[in-house]
Amino acid sequence: MVIEMKNLKLAGLQGSKRTVVQVGQVKVGEDFTIIAGPCGVESEDQLMETARAVKAGGADMLRGGAFKPRTSPYAFQGLGLKGLKILAKAREETGLPIVTEVIDPRDVSWVSEYADVLQVGARNMQNFSLLKEVGKSNRAVLLKRGMLSTLEELLNCAEYILNEGNPDVILCERGIRTFETYTRNTLDISAVPALKELTHLPVIIDPSHAAGKVSLIPSMSFAAVGAGADGIIVEAHRNPAEALSDKDQALTPEQFADMTKKARALYKFMASNHIK
Ligand code: PEP
Ligand code: MN
Predict the structure, then answer these.
(1) Residue 244 is part of a domain; what is its CATH number?
(2) How far is the CA of 79 from the centre of ligand 2 (A)?
(3) What is the per-residue pLDDT for 1?
(4) Which residue, 15, 36, 129, 260, could crosslink 59 as a Cys pair with Cβ 3.0–4.6 Å?
(5) Which ligand number lies closest to the CA of residue 174?
(6) 183-199: per-residue pLDDT in tens?
(7) Do residues 63 and 274 make contact, with C-beta atoms less than 8 angstroms apart?
(8) Whose Cα sits closest to atom 1 in ligand 1?
């Protein structure tokens, strides 16, 4: 299958140019970027403690959802504005830029007052009015691949954002649905080198939503480094057992620190040996 590059006027590879998305001091696409934090903001204590822990463990940015797109309407939906205020407080204390999901086009402008990076989740990848709205904002966008979407569809969604004038798009492979049930999704590791030959945008991996279980997350993060990804976004919680969402895939602060140290060592080894 040939991907229709002519539709990818802005997202398509243009010579050797690579986009670096700068968020505060963090340069996504230049260094290996590690984004970590809980699935959702649950309380001020939970978020602040987790933020301090991931900062100490070597994270570059803090993640945390204030709006959670859940399978059941009865599951924890997030704290909304209260959650965003807690995230802003964590940024103030730790200096870590904030990555948080926006699920409704009507929320984009006011969520942008708190977020450094707007996440468009897998379930909303093809929400075209949301894509247009984040394309008009002055915040970087983390666009996650839909669980049933091809790379061509993902790139066309990035094109929607770029076409509105926002150049700062980070792509994220977070696992796709296959017949396999042992893992929550199947990490398409080939998406990394494939996207690298199709687009100049940075590409990161989400091993948490791909695997759905802690035991597999470090290996998948190392695979992301090996495949040439520009970073990872990973779930961590001060106490995973008490997490209100995605507790089986949240690293403890110790597990996060250990994995980060090893991933950075691997990245450094590859860079110094010109393994790409
Ligand atoms: C998340 O990052 O918490 C999330 C809901 O991810 P995804 O959209 O990839 O399922
Ligand atoms: Mn989650």
Answers:
(1) 3.20.20.70
(2) 14
(3) 66
(4) 36
(5) 1
(6) 999 999 999 999 999 99
(7) no
(8) 39
